[in-house]
Every structure is written in C-alpha cells, then in structure tokens.
C-alpha cells in the first residue's frame, strides 16, 4: 500500500495542462449522463455526419444554457463567453429556441433583455421538438471541443436545468444547436437557392445594426471574397462563407449587416441568423476590448474570469505553436489541453430532423443510427474492423492523460482575489449608460473604483458527480470508465476536427492557387484548383501574363516564391494532420467501444443493469467508390503540393545561383536545367508515402464511419424486483447515502448544504443550493467540505475538501456557470469482498469486475490507482481482456486489485461575489483586430508560429510573465482563424483576454516558470534571453564557489534580484569585453555609480568586507584535530600550573611614590569607548615661510606649526610651537568611531578609516578699528602669564606701519600671545577688533587605522607628506629666496638629481644626502586606549606540504635560523611560505617572476608610480582565514585593484625583473609595519642598490640611514631565499653581498638539492603578463567632474552658514599645474619652481593664496574628501575669501586613477 | 496577510527542549543554536539560547533524566530550501571531578520539513582526545575535549578528523508551520499524512 501511495504521489506532478484537460473531460462526461438521464427516450433517426457536425460545432455555442438561469433571473448574468460561442450555431437553432421559450417565455425574454441583446426571432416556422433536443443534449460529439471551461459551464448549466426540474423545465434547451443540424440546414438552404426564409432576421439585424461606417470599412477589406462566394459552387460557397465569416468575426468588425452583405446569396433567414450570431460575436468582441458598445457607454456584461486552465491552454498553445511541420505536429498538438471551449453540449439531432422535414432531402453522408439498444452484438459487430485494426506501427500517438491526480484536487486552488482591483457593478446599473471607459484602462486596474463595501459571497453548489464510492458496484465503476473513454474520444474528435481541417485545406489550396497565379510561372504545373475542378473552371481567372509581367524583380519574386512554398508546406501539413486526426479518432473510438463492451459484459454477467449509461454508435455507411475518389483527390492534391514545393525550392536554389553569377546570360533554359539538376523530384516515392499514410491512418475503404454518443436512459434499468438480493441490498445502502456539505470561508463555517441522496443510476448527487455569505473582509479561502453521514456516527464524516475558486472580479451575485472541482477523499477505503455486492453469478462464470484479467501485479496496482481516481483512463485495452467469463479466479484477483479506492468525483460549483461599489472597469479598445485579420489572410500560415515564438521571447523580458502580457502578445500575433488549432485561442482571446488585462493575473509566477521554454528555446544566438531562474541559478552556483561574495540571501526569483547582486554574475559574462576595455557603460549619465572604476573598487571593498563576514562560513576544511577540537591540554597548562610569582614579589617590594612604575596596560574587550592616543613629540625639517608670505601678510618668518589630527570626522589639534624643529610632547585623544563588537571582530582592519595628522602653520594677525585697539589687544595678550617674556621678545617684530587702507595691524606675537588672543577671542572679542588666524597647510601624515589596529601601537619617526608645491612656504633644502622674485612662492624641490638618476635606472646613491635633507619628519606614537589584545596571527612556518623533500629542506632551514636570537625573538621576520588565495601554502619564491608592465610604462619611476597608485588594503581583510596573510598573485592583485605590502612589493619587483634589473624582495620591519616589504634593486653585480617602498612610492639608497626599513629578516627572489644572519639588521649597516654565507644563509644551497627539483619547487605562480585593461581615458572626465562636484559640495557644507564663493578663473591655471605635477611624479622629477610659479604669478599679485595640490589614489570619493578635509581649508577666513578648486585625474591601466586636487583659498590683498 | 508575498517562505518552529538523559551526569544545561544556510534569515525569535542548570533527582526511577522545558521559538524566512535550519544542541554539565561547564554532548537535528508537531530525540556525542596524553590529562583534570565551534556538528566538513563517543540523548518537541513554500514551487507533504494499510 505504501508503495502504491508513493507511486501515486509520483504521479501528482501532473502538469496543470493535464489537470485542465482532465477536468474538461470529466466535466463533459459528467454532464452527459445527467442530461441523458433526463432525456426523452425518443429515438432519432437522422443525424448528419460527424464531419458536418464537427465543422459546425466549431461555432456552436452554449447559448442553449443561456436561458438556463431563468429560474434565478434576478441574479443571473450572462457571460459573453457563451455569447461568442453562440455565433453560428444560433442560426438553425431558432426552432428549438422557440420551443424552449414557449415554456417560459417571460424568463427567456427577461434574460435576453438583461443581456442587452435583441430578442431572438421567433419566426422560424418549422416545428421544433424541444424534447428531442433535450434528449440529445450533450451528445454531440463535437460539443465538447471547446475544452475544459466552456464545457464545464455549459454542462453545469445543463445539469442544473435538469435537476432543478421544476424551475427549469423546458428552459435551456432553446438555444441548443445541433451543429451538424445547422450545417445541414445551411446546406439545404443554400441548395434551395436561398429562397426559403423568414422575416425574423430583419428586425434582429435592425436591432443590432450599429456602426455602419466601420462595417463598410471592414467590408472593403475583403471584397474579393464576397464575389467569390457567389461565383462558386454551393458547397464552395458554404465553405467560403464560413471562412470569411470566421475571419471577420476575428476582426471584431462584423455586425449583422455585414453578415448579410457577406452572404448575399443567402436567404434572409440565413442573413438574419448570421446577423444575430454575428451581433453576439461582436458584442463579445466588444467586451473583449474593441470599440462599439463599450465606447458608447453601454455596460457590457462581465466576461468570465479566465481560469488557470485557460492560461495553461494558452501556454500549451504556445508550445503547440513551436511544433515543427510534418508528422511531428500531431504529438505536439495532442499536448494542447482542452481548449476553453464554450460549446454547449446540446442535442444534435433536432436540427437534422428539422432539416429533413423541411427540405425532405438528406445529405449524402447522413446515415442511419445504430441504436445500440442491444449493445453487445451490434456494436461489437460495428467495431469489428476497428478492433481488428492493425497494431499501431507508429508507437507515438500518446493519448492525452485524462486522469486527475487523486490526491490533488484539480481545479481546487483558490484564487487570490485581488480585492483592491476588483470592483462590482451595481445591479441596477447594468443596463444604464455609464461613462465610457478610458482607453488604455488596462493599465489602471483601480480606475473607477468608488468604495469598498461589504462583500456578498455567493456560492452555488449545483451538484456532485461521484466516480468512486465504497458502495459502487463493478457496473458503476465500469460506467464511469465508459464516460472517461467516451470523453477522450469526444474531445479528440473535437480537437482535431477532420472536417475543419478539410475546410482549412480548401482555403489553403485556394490561396496556393491564387499565389501561383500571381507568381505566374509559365512552366509551373497546373494549379491545384484546375486539377480539382477540371478545365471548365480555370483558376480564379488571374491573367498569367499580367502576373508574369509583374515579376520583373528577382527579389520580389524570390519573396513570393518563399511565401508560396510556405503555403505549400502549410497545406501539406494540414493534409497530414487531417489523416492523423482521423486516425486518432478511430483509435479512441475503439477504446470507448472496448469500455462499453466491458460495461455490457459486466451488465450481462450481473444479469441486471443498474446504471443508466448508454453508448450509442452511429454507423455512417460509406461508399467505397466515394472513399476512393476522395482519397485519390487528396493524394493527388498532396502530390501536387509536394511537386510544387519541390519545384519552388529548386527555383529558389536556381535564383540563388543566378545571384551568385554562375548562371548569367545563359537564359532561362539553362537556369531551368540547373533547377532540374538540384534534385529530381521523386514522384513515385512521395506518392507511395502518401498512400502508405492514408492506408495507415484512414479507415479501410468502404468501411462505415463511426460516431459515438453517450446518453442516460432510465429505460435500460432493470426493475428492482428483478435484482438480486445483494444488489437490492446495495441499492438500499446507496439510497441511504446522503452527502452534504459545509462551506468554510477563511476556515469558518459559513453555511451547510443539507445532505442529499445519491442518485445511484446517474452516479450523482444533486444539490442546487445557493449559499450567500456576507463578509466584512475579503475571503482568503473558500472551501467546500463534503460530508457523508454514516450509520451510527455522531457527526458526518468528511469525504473531501474542495477549495473553490473565487473570481478575481466581482461578478454581481450569482454565477450561472458552475465549474467542476475535482475532489478526492483523503482516506481510502478497502473494497472488501463483502462490500462488493455480488451479483448472481452467471452460469458460465463468476462475476468478474470489468478489469478482471488486466495482467500482472503492476498492472493491477495501476488499475487500482486508476479506479480510485475520478475518471479512469482506458489504456490497457487488449481486446481479449474484455472477454466475458474469464474465470472465477479472475474475479478474486480483481477484488484484490480493486480493493483500495477512495471517494472521488467532482463538485459542480461556482463562487461569485459582489460588493456594493462602482462599476467595473471596462478594458480599452483593441485596435489591432482588423489588421490582424487581414494579416492572417495575407501572410503565410506559418507566420503565427514564427512570430509567436519571437513574441514569447519578448514577453518576459521584464522578468515576470503574467497572463495579461501573454494576452497582449497573442492579440498582436496573427493567428489563423482557419486553423483549428488557433480557433480556441482566438475565442479565448476575444472573450477573456482583455478581461485579464484589466485585472491582475492570477498566479503569474507559475506562468513564469511555464513560459521559460519560450525564452530559453526561442531567442536565437548570443542575445538569447536567460530562461527563468537562470540568473538565480547562476548566483547560487557562484555562491557555492565564492560564498564570500554574498552577504544577503539570493532572492527566489530573477525579478527580485537586486542590481548589485546581479552585477556579480554580469562581470563573468562581460569578462571578455572588460579585457579589451570596451565594456559598455551608461553613457551620457552623470550617475556616478555608473563609473566603472569606482564600481570596481567599491565592489572590491564590499567584497572584502563580506569576505570577513563570511569567513567563518567556509574555508579550508580542517585537516587536523587541533583545528577542530580543543584538547584539555590546550586549556589547562597556564591556569593550573602557573602561580603568580610576580604578584607576590610586587607585594613585598618597597613602595616608591616618587618613582611610579609603569602600569602594564591590560588589554580588554569589555570597554565600549575606546580612544586613539596620539602622542606628538617633535618634528624636523619643516618648510619655512617664504619671504613673500611674510611680506604679504606682515607676519614673522618664524614658523608656528601645529598639528590637526582627524579621524572619521573628529578632529583635535595641538598647540602651535615655534620653529622648524618644534617639540610638542603633547598627547591628543580621539574617540574611536567604532564599536566594541567591530573591534572584537577586527573589522577595523577592513575599514578605510585613516588617521590624518595634518601640519599647519599658523600666522595670526589681529585687525582692529584702530591701531590703539589692536595694540591694546596685543598688549593685553603680551601681559598674560604664559607668554610674557616671549611677547616681549617678539615685540620688535611688530610691523610699524599699517596697510594702505588704514587698517590697524598687529603681527603675531609669539605663542603665548596667540594663545591669549585665541582665548580672548573665544571669550569676548573687543569691539571693533577681530583676529585673523591664517593657516597654511604644510603636509600630512596619514596612517591607516587598520595599521594602528593590527600593530596595536605605532611609534617612530615618519616622513610627512608635503605637497609638491606650497605657496608661501619652502622646504629648507630649497633654493634660497634670493633666487626667487619678491612675491614668488616657495616650491618644494627635492633632490632632482637623485630622482632623475632613479628615473633612468641608475644608482641613486650619489644624490642620497640631498634627498635625505629634503624630508620633513615627525616623531610620534599612536596607540589605542584601552589597549587591544594583540592580534593572533598563526602562520604555520612550515605547513604540511605534500612535498616531503621540500618540507625537509624548509624544516632544516627554519630550524637553523630560529636558533639565532633575533629570529627566535621574532624581531626579524622570516616567512618561507605564504597562503595563496586558493588556500595553498606556496613558497614565496614562486611569487617572483619577471612580469611585463603595461606597455606605456617603462621608466622605473613610472613603474613605481603605477604600483604606488594601486590602493592599499590590509591583507588580513582579504584573507579567507583570519589568521593568515594571503599573498595574491599579481594578476589577482591587479584585478582586485587593491592589496597590501607584499603585493605591491612583488609587483614592483617583478616589473623590475622584467626590465632586466636585479631585484629582490626584502622582508623586514618598519615603524608602520610589523612586516615591511621593500624591493631591492641594483645593477647586476653592483654593490650599491636602492630600496623601494612600493606602497609609499619612496626610494632609499642602501646607504641611507633614514630608510624606515629595519630588522631585515630575509631577502628572496625567484630562485632562493636568503636569511639575514649577520648581526646588523639595518640596511645601511648591513652587508648586502648575498653570496656571503656568513651574512646570509640561503635556503637552497647549491648541491643540496637536485636542480630540477628546485626549479620545480620554485615554479612561478605568476603569469608572465598579467591582464591589463586599457586606461579608461573616457572615464576620467566623469571622475573629474564628480570629484570636483563632491568636494565643492563638501566644502560648502562644512562652511555652513559662512559664505562660500568660488573663483573659477583659476581653474585653467591650476589644472596646468596639476597636469605638470602628475608628469613630474611619473618621471620622478620636479619642475622648476619658476615654471610653476609663472602660472600663478598674475593671481598672486592680487590675492594671498593658501593652496596646495593633493594627490590621492582613487578608491572612493570619501577618501578624497577626507584628504581635503585634513587640510582644513574650509576653515579659512579672510577678506573677500574665495575658494578655487581643480581636479585632475590621470587614468592608468586596470582602472587605477591618480586623483589630483588643487584646492586654494584666496584672500584679496587689496 | 492580505498580500501574500510569494518571494519567500516562512518556517515557524516553536517548541521546547524538554529533557535529556545523561547517565552519570548531574547538573546539566544545554545551549541551542539554530544553524541555517545562507538564504535563511531569522525573522523572529532567538537564534540561540542557554537553558537553566537542571539537576536530575537521584531518587527518581528514571534516573538521569533532567528536565529543562526550555522554549524554542523561532521564525525563519528563506528563499531557498537549501540550508534548511538545524538545531545544534550542546549539553554542558559538571564533570566527574566536579569541574563545571564540561562538555557532555553535541547533537544536531534538522527542523522537520513537515508541518505539525514533532518529537525529536537527539542522540548526542562528545569528542574524545586524540592522544593518550590528552586522555590522561582529561582524566586527571576532569576536563573533556570539546569542539572549538559547536556548529561543526551541523556541518559535514572537518568531522572526519575527530573521534567521538556517543553519550546521552535530548528530547526536543517542536511544532512546525510552513508558509508560502507552495508558491515557490516546493511541494510539501500533506499536513496529515495518513497511511492505510
């Protein structure tokens, strides 16, 4: 059992398509017995051919059920769907309508009025037998073609009308049109010369005769057809009429007048009928969005809600559209679900009978019924040929699954009602005129909504159809199976519709013919029509000569040829599918007969009949001659089409060759010969293939065609008294079965259905109840619980739960159309032997239930599953299995196999709701209707498929596909109205498509998945759109590889993926583009985010932060126990064994208060507030004030420097001291803007926070209103305590004179004076006096916070980064001011010679002293308080390598080195192996490898500059494991665009190696770095060398004692590692002779290892040429603009209320200077100060300029702003203060940018 | 809930860590952590918690059962079933030598994927020392080796290097509710799966 259940679950994944199909089938099936049970027992003799029925039924509507709701007229609304379908069939049905209306005329009339439709003409004189019609309702084989929804609707209205006999007696039948009857009568009338008629059509036409103008225009589109209609033979006329009509209906432009014009030859009756139906069609079209009534303000009824089945239908149609031509099409077609048909399952006999009576003539193809009253022998004989049909040679022809999933209710998902968008018409307003809807209202679902009232939910439960129950007998089960089989046949006949295909073939043939005529190829074969009709009627009379003359243009001709061949292909396909359709119909009919035989056998065995199911077989005797003729004609047509298609292909080939110039000048003859050459047409092969297909597919010649009908007849039932005791007992039990229901809304009981008895013969329970629930809130779920009262049970048991679907739109009140909802009980029952009523065994055999000998165990299990389901498919149909009397043991087997079942079936119910609100929105006009129709007529039929696929691909570009889009797209698609495959789609489109557009799509997400094929399969080439979920899948794949990239969950759908996450995938796709630097970017937008360089770095920074966050998630899997398990020994050693001796000693030590001992700083994580302590000790080598400054400002020449330290926006400053080598000894405190948690996670390392210590020179002037005031102030200051003596000393410096403007002026007067002034300024400024403290920025020391954090404490002497050009100051080493003009500015001139020498690669030793002298330095320390615990870096010195020999060498080496004290203490760093980004331990030598720099960089200084510009980022950040420093390869480094010391050093080293220099990487310590990497370069063999610090871009000769490198631990290059074993470890004091084994110990000693091995160990991990991307020159302008804008805004913001004026005149000058400075930096030289000064000379005459160029490497805008902020220039003040700002960006390869900012504050000198 | 957000699904789990049975151990407490995949987020509730210290009653018949009845109530949301949440349990208790906070057992279990009430018994284990010296040390100190990261027991990586000893069982009762999985295409089993046999 468990296994079975599992298998059943497996089948649950039935596609929705399948479910839809099943629902439809079962619905029709259910309807049949219901209708039939009610049907009269009158026998019908005349039924037109199934073929005719099929064709007609295409448009046969379910109008029949239109009046069905008359009993509840007040609530009833008609759905236009039904009206649409009514169209054609309406015409001949009038008699029946009359008949019905006589029963309840008022109801019918009122119903029609409500529908705003003219009253149907009651004028047809012919007597109609309503009862007859009813008796055959639902029996038309064609009636179910409309598919799930429509069928359901019609059926249920039917059911209701049947069941609610009192209310609906006689109703509902009126509109029933036996489609074949319609056809027949049409024929008859056409033949009678259209003389017969009635005047009834006229009023109807008049009543609906609107919009004549449009009609005329529509008419003008197809004049030819009208003419043709007259010209042709009558059958042709009929067909033509039909096709034309369909097309025009599609165009939505047909009205009654049009119809009458269209069929001029038709009788007035016909015209009227056509008109009426056309009017209905049109109305439906209007509802669907065309102009017309809706435009004029009429409210037109709601189209029905589109169901999910219909949507799946659309999609299935889409997939069908993708099928290939030829035989393969059949299979695809079969996948299409039952369409949204609206065919009423109406009787098909009335009309033929009527036709016969009237016309007295019978169609030749009308046959007699085999009444099948005595079923067994008769039908068995009938189907002999079918049963003995050859076993299918072709395995393909899968039949559509008709089995619903028993565990999953078919239609049972509630809609998610879009209450916001829904609105309800007032009932009274339905016929009133309302405001015309806005055009394009599709987009405004809430337009016109007024208010939101209470909601009335109306649930109509019509009945229940059971397909299994524990009390069901074998016969009942068999009856259910007959239903199923019949329905399958019924559906397929409807779907594939051989007759309609025939019509289509005719149209295609004519089109081919017309096209041939146009083509006018003289040598072509005779047109098909000529063959068909004979010479008497030549093809359409198109003059060939004219056509020939037309074709002068080869390309036009080629186009036509192609079009024609497409037509032929279509024709061939139609021919083939017609045969296939017939084949399928035969096979399915056979299956139905088999089931019917089984049912009869069961009845025979039981010797009684307890179900009323009757299957009737109609045999249409066939004339062998006619058959043969028809086939021969078809074969001939096909052969002809093949031949022509071949010839056309050949001609295309020839044309192509002619274009190629190969057939020039030889004339037509040679071309034609060429064509013959292409490939001879093998006529015989084609003919044999065609005849083979015909033989296979078509029925044998002369054999009667079969058509089936299912009906219910009480007459067949065995009288109760004849039944066996057991059967009577069972019936008693069945009669006691009462099924009720409970309606649950949102889980609460909202109503109950009283238990009703089960109608055993019809397997049905009738409810006919309407439950009205008033709700205050929208219903989320509406569930119908079916309950069955069992004996002795306290409360009824729940049989099943049916979630009902509420429409998304308010459908005022009662919904007339019920839908079938499959249900299946959760519990199964065991059909115990005793429970199965045993019929009296027939003498011959035990009574085996129908599927007795079904086969082995697997088949049994399957059969059991099927039986438990709602409708059993009949797949295992070996005829022998049906043989009665298969033995008594067969019966027992069956019992065992059928033992498990579950109550299942369908509920026929509908849900509607109503809210008191405004009118619903009508969709806007659909404008493309007419054009589409004409397009459909003109273009090749294949176009609909082709354009369809492209359209499908485009629909979902936005990501989420919804049904509204599908409809919009389909509306724009040229569908072929003649194609039976398209018919349903067209109808659905017309009726429901726009409705869907107006409301929200239901379950659009499902559609997204379903339509993925369209996007995946159809988009051609590289532009192919990704299928749904592709992006998400790509992201998930990426995350599995690189989890660090992701910080947030990957959204569930593509459409929800945020842009930045999608960008993670995008680079991989556009990677190739990136390499060439041609990656497209958003042009013309100022959006800074679009800037690629920024994005790259920003992405990297984000990624790095995420890497840290995700570090714990994934890394190298642990390899050792110690990595995972904390052993007791690890924890116990320290606390247990150590006793605090030091504490004891301290206890006894004498206390010396005057000599306090230093308290050890205890690291802790507990403190939340931490601060940075900056101790600034002293500085040296500071610039001095230029004389010009002194003169200009009147200040002393003594420098008054102070420090301003800023971190994260907070600043502190020191006092200002005097002199160029001042001593501060001040400790500043800055709060850390970082939380404790971040600290604990060491997240600071990833922050880009930088401590800026900016050095300023403060020049103070005081301005007073008079000299007295000023002097007084100064005097007061001088008198203050702190600076008395200094003030006295500086008094002599006071400038005696004032400025020409008379301002009193006092120069600065020493430290104390300034302090005092500052104080007094802060306290109370003397009136009329202000102090002007002018500040000059001198330089910055920037220390990344990450460095401070990782080192814990930074202490030492550091070089100050002095801007290359200072106005007003000069460096001490610079030339004296005597050289400069009086008002010139000082310019920093570092030792040019040294740098020049560097630039050309020479040793710079000679220039070293000069270079050293130029440097300004500061001695300071920075630490964090409270101190942080030192970071633990656990780098395994000797990792567990696989390579044992290397490991041994490394261990030996390290062991020997560690024995030395400096290494043992860790003072000298030593690192042999580094962790690569792949998590492998890699020998450091492998990172060194000559690498080509970008082509444009050649000089050493350029290389240095380039490497230096690559942003610095702590490696701890980038590492996957916290405790290891990852060494990335240079390629990774460059692609990431950031790295730390070793990456920079390695890159520089590799570049130098590539130049041919001798280069090493030196590992040591520096003040700022625990592990500093320098590059040693020297001339090959030379003793002298230069050390480069790649990150800072500085260079030091080896002998330079100021080189920050200390404690050199090791040196390595590509081949070896040298450890520094000499006593000295400062570069200037060391021996750099690496060959000296006393000073250096090498890792690979010659001879100690095999050379091959060494070369293997040192095989490089680097690429010889890293990937470079072109320097994005075009980006730099964006960057410049953006940086400038940002700085401008920032300065303005920082200045707050102070005015900020900008001087834009200096831009050009400053830019020139910046350009120059960058060039200098690249070339390592400094321009002559005069040259730069000359640029500014003019400005300097009128302004005092405080300004300086800043250079930063580009990471993000924040960094630049921070650097500008550090200069504090925004705090400038002065007279007529103006700011000048210029930004210059230089792009380097790999999106590395050097950003120069020249910011200046100008004060007027006048 | 007027608007159903179909871009994620919710897993609500509430219940309690009822009790545990660790023979020979007294004074146990338990720490739970919810370990989940990258697409999961905790919407409500605590991702981890530590129970009170509970002692078993020596005289009781069921011996070493300690009751915590510690509530676990967490709601997670996700876009992906991958990384389905697991409950990682770490039981600490006094060692034989009376040292507190010694590891008694690790265990983990996925939260049930089916809605309903589930009673889960989680058998726990604890690592054992890899070297005899550590055995000795742990014997003398009464300290047991433990995982550096308890979440290791919810992962597949790195377990192979350890050796463990089974010890104890924890009873977890949890009620699970799911929302929105169907909308994302996951097929969940019916809430009341009944088998008929």
Automatic annotation (TrEMBL), chain A:
Domain spans labelled CEP76/DRC7 peptidase-like: 1525-1643
Taxonomy, superkingdom: Eukaryota
Annotated stretches, region: Disordered: 1-237, 327-381, 519-541, 834-889
Family matches, as Pfam families: CC2D2AN-C2, CEP76_C, CEPT76_peptidase
Composition skew (Pro residues), residue ranges: 838-851
Domain called CC2D2A N-terminal C2: residue spans: 702-831
Bias-annotated ranges (Low complexity): 13-32, 198-209, 869-884
Compositional bias per record (Basic and acidic residues), positions renumbered to this chain: 1-12
A GO CC term attached to the entry: ciliary transition zone
GO process terms (BP): non-motile cilium assembly; protein localization to ciliary transition zone
Signal peptide feature range: none
Chain ranges of the Centrosomal protein of 76 kDa C-terminal domain: 1675-1801
Protein name (database record): C2 domain-containing protein
From TrEMBL, chain B:
Alphabetic keyword roster: Cell projection, Cilium biogenesis/degradation, Cytoplasm, Cytoskeleton
Pfam families, A to Z: B9-C2
GO cellular component terms given for this protein: MKS complex
Localization, UniProt: Cytoplasm, Cytoskeleton, Cilium basal body
Highest taxon, organism lineage: Eukaryota
GO terms, biological process: cilium assembly
Tagged with keyword Signal: no
Signal peptide annotation: none
Family annotation (PROSITE patterns): C2_B9 (PS51381)
The UniProt record lists the keyword Ubl conjugation: no
InterPro entries from the UniProt entry: C2_B9-type_dom
Family listed: Belongs to the B9D family.
Protein name from the UniProt record: B9 domain-containing protein 1
Originating species: Diacronema lutheri (Unicellular marine alga)
